[in-house]
Amino acid sequence: METTLSIIPETFRINEPINQKTYLVNGELKEWEGATADVYSTISSTSEYSPTLLGSVPDMGEKEALDALDAAVKAYDQGQGAWPTMKVRDRIECMEKFVRIMETKRDIVVKYLMWEIGKTLPDSEKEFDRTVEYIYDTIEDYKQLDRNSAKFAKNGGVHAHIRRGPLGVVLCLGPYNYPLNETFCLLIPAIIMGNTAVFKPAKQGVLLIAPLIKAFKESFPKGVVNVLFGRGRAIAGPIMKTGKVDVLALIGHSSSANALQNQHPKSNRLRLVLGLEAKNPAIVLPDANMELAINECIAGALSFNGQRCTALKVIYVHKDIVKEFSEKFSKKVDELKFGNPWDKGVTLTPLPETDKPAYIQDLIDDAIAKGAEILNGKGGEHSDNYIWPAVLYPVSKDMKVYEEEQFGPVIPILSFKDIQEPLDDMAESNYGQQVSLFGSDVYALAPLIDNLANLVCRVNLNSSCQRGPDVYPFTGRKDSAVATLSVHDALRSFSIRTFVASKDTELNNEILEKLLETKLSNFISTDYLL
Ligand code: G3H
């Protein structure tokens, strides 16, 4: 595959590497003197292809990991810390300060999103803006949650003041494909609810966090947010083994989540908030609007080169239309534009993982050996940092590309005669996040919707799968998720219902009245937060 080097716009050039020397522990930006790991982009800055050195980050180990954990444990201080007992209003003020500083870092974060993970300029901007919006929406939702709790209930002669309280210390690990958005969709609700956190950015998409570290330091009390760099195995494992983590918040692969949760010695203490892998199918019925289905399946399978947990990873097409569908689909795939993230109109961009093209090639080889064909002319062509999406058909269940979550540019197509075939496959699958259903006959759609809603957690009608809008519940069945995330649900996932109960006696009622009058307790409060 031929690639020509596009001119890199002045504002996006890497003039100086970012050598991240500090990390945040216990409110202090500590200097790192130890080993560092270079961060490269698979995007070339020169006409002769060579990866671009973007900078370096500390390669930390167990000692620093445990120091950071201690800081988070101390800041929580068995629930007595300043942060978990703080007035809601004051915690919100800290968060507002943080998001205001964050907004000033848009340009640099967007630039590094493009270089580090190859996300297009519009999508990188969207990731930043969507994250900022998520923080503001979280603040608003938290205010509403607080307003709803600013009252007493009385049942069976017992007054109750019920709120949601924090859980403790959160270990927060994000993915490389949404290194800002998905990580912050865990971290922000976790801390606003009064928990304290140790946070390690993903291996790729790490330098873009650097400009925000000072903002964490300046906005939150010491020890509330601790930021570490290094490999998950070296850092997260030792932290889990201590048994001091109350919540494992992770977006990534179920194998990493399983390995980490198994190291925790007290499994009932550990709450899990996990967004894991998926193999979302598209089901195209014979009466589907062909053009609409093709466009949505292209976007669903290939936005960010298919490196999304919500990507369409297998397409089922009814046998009566599979020929027409796959021909038109393949033609459209080859019309897509490949280029660097800042190039106008690009859809396909360099893959950040150097070993991904070889992995995708392996899936293609396996499928071909078992009887599939590549339908598109460019399918499987290699360049320095890419492999062109191959449309594979007919795919069968013994192929790796059917079984594994490809998380990259390759599209398996299967045909079906009876709708029960894809339904049985979905029921058998280890995953259960979302489905895209294309069709128009309500008599066919109705029973399908009723069944699909019990197999996955979002049925997308005539549209590709996606997480957003972020106010909607994002979750999955089986190996696809534990707990539900959305602006609202995340606040629930990172907290627990806890309340003060008092029998309706003269003594207790007098105490309650005094508590409200003096405003001495931050928990017992009926103040209305504006
Ligand atoms: O990687 C999984 C993301 O949550 C997908 O989010 O559907 O907005 O791309 P998205």
Explain this structure to me?
The protein has 530 residues and is an alpha/beta fold. It is built from 16 helices and 25 strands. Strands 15-18-19-14-13-21-22 form a 7-stranded mixed sheet, with helices on both faces. The protein has a 6-stranded mixed sheet with strand order 10-9-8-11-12-24, sandwiched between helices. Residues 177-178, 182, 308-310, 466-468 line the site of glyceraldehyde-3-phosphate.
List keywords for this structure.
530 residues; alpha/beta; six-stranded mixed β-sheet; 16 helices; globular; binds glyceraldehyde-3-phosphate
SSE blueprint and pairings:
Layout: E1 18-19, E2 22-25, E3 28-31, E4 36-44, E5 51-58, H1 62-76, H2 88-103, H3 106-117, H4 121-149, E6 153-155, E7 158-166, E8 169-173, H5 181-192, E9 196-200, H6 210-219, E10 225-227, H7 232-241, E11 247-251, H8 254-263, E12 271-275, E13 280-284, H9 290-302, E14 312-318, H10 322-335, H11 356-369, E15 373-374, E16 382-383, E17 386-387, E18 390-393, H12 400-403, E19 410-416, H13 420-428, E20 431-432, E21 434-438, H14 442-452, E22 458-461, E23 477-478, E24 481-482, H15 487-493, E25 495-503, H16 506-518
Parallel strand pairs: 1-5, 8-9, 8-11, 9-10, 11-12, 13-14, 13-21, 14-19, 18-19, 21-22
Antiparallel strand pairs: 2-3, 4-5, 6-7, 7-25, 12-24, 15-18, 16-17, 20-23
Helix pairs in contact: 1-7, 2-4, 2-6, 3-4, 4-5, 5-15, 7-8, 9-10
Cα-atom Rg, whole angstroms?
25 Å
Major sheet size, sense and barrel closure = 7 strands, mixed
- Look at the helices and sheets and give the structural class: alpha/beta
Averaged pLDDT: 97
Looking at how many chains there are and whether they match, the oligomeric state comes to single chain
Sequence stretches where pLDDT stays below 50 over 5 or more residues: none
